[in-house]
Amino acid sequence: MTAEPRPGAPVPSIDPRTGNVRAHPAREAGPADVHRAVTAAHRTLDALADRHRRAALLHAAADLLDAARSEVLAAADAETALGETRLTGELARTTNQLRTFAETAADGGHLDVRIDRADPATGRPDLRRTKAPLGVAAVFAAGNFPLAFSVPGGDTASALAAGCPVVVKAHPGHPETGELCARLLRRAAEDVGLPADVVTTVHGFTAGTHLVQHPLTAAVGFTGSLRGGRALHDLAAARPRPIPFHGELGSLNPVLVTEGAAATRPEQIGTGLAASFTLGHGQFCTKPGLVLLPAGHPALEKAAVTAAAQAPAAPLLDPRIRDAYLTGAARRAALPGVEVLLAPGPAPTPEAPLAVRPGILAVAAADLHDLLLDECFGPLTVLVRYRDDADLHTALDRLPGTLTATLHHAPDEPPARTRPLLARLTALAGRLVLNSWPTGVAVTPAMQHGGPYPAATTPTTSVGTAAVHRWLRPVTYQDAPQELLPAELRD
């Protein structure tokens, strides 16, 4: 067992294509480092009180990230092997959500102001409700999105929009990218007259636990594994003063294909599935990891296998994730009754010795093992063949909470047939997808990115403008003089 690095130890930046150490851009944070970061962030709360200044910060951060595009993309690709095309789109999404949350902050609609004026006839007092920031937000960067869910990502943007300073626990998979983005965000703060410490970063596994336990940390945003997220969630709940832990922990994202859909468009569904579960090398949190489809439709399965086999071999985000993917896929393939339609495994190339290929497994619904209901991170999906409605509903009963659930049905299937299926899926997921695919998440007011546990630990969203509400608490002022009210509550 490898010993945990001590405070002050260098944090390596590793090339996921080769496994070679590139550089040591940061150092492991100890308890004293975490304490300095959190207390420095806490001192900036008053400076963030002006929501228009917060909006200016978010706009400035987006502009600086765009201006540093070449440097940011080069660092992110070197540490994740996601490629310039994918990362260019991710940077655009990142700067777009920064600007979107800037508009949210400036508009003030997220404060949900409500005013009930005094009514002498009934004796009701004057009541005025708004929302106030919770305090320092601890954000855990995600491995699969080095920009959009990391240091400059949606958790950071929404927390700053709410008026909460942020301490980011950088991800060990892309420490150089995290440090570069943190410098840009801190420079943006200074450019608009705010303290740089509205955003700070810390590195290291133990730094994360100290960050969650620090008495001035007011809330946590986490995107990562079920095991790690649940451990941190339990720490947050066990504090003398428990705090909200908004965790996105893992998701199976089941797809349900009806008999009518499988019969009328098998090739379209099969190729669409392959494109979705191999997108980003299967490292999206919305990857469809399990597909319920009627038995006896070889054309659909063949189309999926043929299309997935043509996906290029590629490295995963880091050697640890690669090892977990290969081990997890092998364990699932070895289960009784599981058929390997496309074998996952190593697929080295001259440019990427650690590259892997995607896999497709199949199993009868009656043989659906518990392990197949756990997310396998990477380009693997499982086809579950059901014989009849009883088979299907037995499988649905076993599915865990999930970020998305997808229903593929035929247009001529009666609503009396499809509506109950959609209702079953609605109980499982935060976003329902019909005759499409779940990979890709739009940053819009209506987006919901969260779901019942274990997909998430709270019934909120980490994407879209509604994410700002995770960092706020309602406050009502009763019979307060005008001059003592927050500006948004005054007559």
From TrEMBL:
InterPro entries: Ald_DH/histidinol_DH, Ald_DH_C, Ald_DH_N, Aldehyde_DH_dom, Aldehyde_DH_Superfamily. It comes from the Bacteria. Residues 1-32 are annotated as: Disordered. Coiled coil: none annotated. Keywords: Oxidoreductase. SUPFAM superfamilies: ALDH-like (SSF53720). It holds the Pfam family Aldedh. Residues 11-409 form the Aldehyde dehydrogenase domain. GO terms for molecular function: oxidoreductase activity, acting on the aldehyde or oxo group of donors, NAD or NADP as acceptor. PANTHER family: ALDEHYDE DEHYDROGENASE-RELATED, SUCCINATE-SEMIALDEHYDE DEHYDROGENASE, MITOCHONDRIAL. This is Aldehyde dehydrogenase. It comes from Kitasatospora phosalacinea. The lineage of its organism: Bacteria, Bacillati, Actinomycetota, Actinomycetes, Kitasatosporales.
